[in-house]
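Shipment paperwork, digital attachment
Item: protein structure file
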Amino acid sequence: MSKKSMHVVLMVACFIFSVSGMAAAGVVGSKHDFSLLNPTPSNFSGIYQAAGEDIVETCVFCHTPHSAASAAATGVQGLLWNRTNSIAASFTPYTSGTLSVTSGATGLTLMCMSCHDGITSIAVGALINAPSPATNPSQVTAFGSDKIGSIWNVPTPNPFGFEWGANIGNLDPALGLSGRVANLSDDHPVSFTWILNNKDIRDPADWTGTGATALKLFNNRMECSTCHDVHDNTEAPFLRMSNVNSDMCTTCHIK
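Attachment content:
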C-alpha cells in the first residue's frame, strides 16, 4: 500500500472513530448507559455481566461491529443493531375518535420497544452478539431489575388501587403480569404515515421555531425517534428539542 493510500485509510479511520466517539459521548452517563462505568448510575446501569464479568461497554447494549441483526430477523436494516425484537406478542395502540391513522409499533419504533415494551430485558437474552468475554447471548446475566417494567410493577396493588407499569409499553392490565400484549394505549401514537387531513396538525414544512427543525419524520412516518434522540439527553428525556411551554407539542399540533 502506498503512503498516500495509507494516509487516506488513516484519515477515514480517524473520522469514523471521531463520529462514533461523539455518539458515545452523548450516551455516556445518561440513562441509556447501562455499563458498569456509568458515572451517574441508574436502576439499570452496572447490573449486567457477560460470563460473570461486569460489562463496561456502553454501546454494546444496542450496537455491535460484528454479527449485527439482519433486516429479515428484526425488521430494521443497518445501524449495526445488536438487539432482538420485542418479545411482546402484540401491542395495544392508542386510539381516539379523532385519530384517523392506524398506529402501532413497527420499524424504528420496534427498536425502541426492544427495551421499552416493559417486557423484554435490556440485555439478558436480548443481545445478538454478546460482549466479551461471553461467547453467546445466554451468558449475559443481571443482578437486579433487567426489564423497564419491573422497576415499577409491585406484587400487590399500591394504596391507590393499581399497579405501576413502565412509562411506555407496560403490560396490559387485563392480562396481568404474565401478559405479552404491550399496552401503548396511553402513549402518543407512533409508527404511522403522516397524513395532513386534520386542520389541527401542521405541515412538517412549517415546523419552525427554536429546535423545531430537529424533529424528524422517517420515510414520512411518525416514529418514537421523531421526538426523541436516544444519543442526546440534553433535553430530558432524550427530547430532540425543549418542551418548555409545550413548544415541542405545538410544533406539530395547532393549539
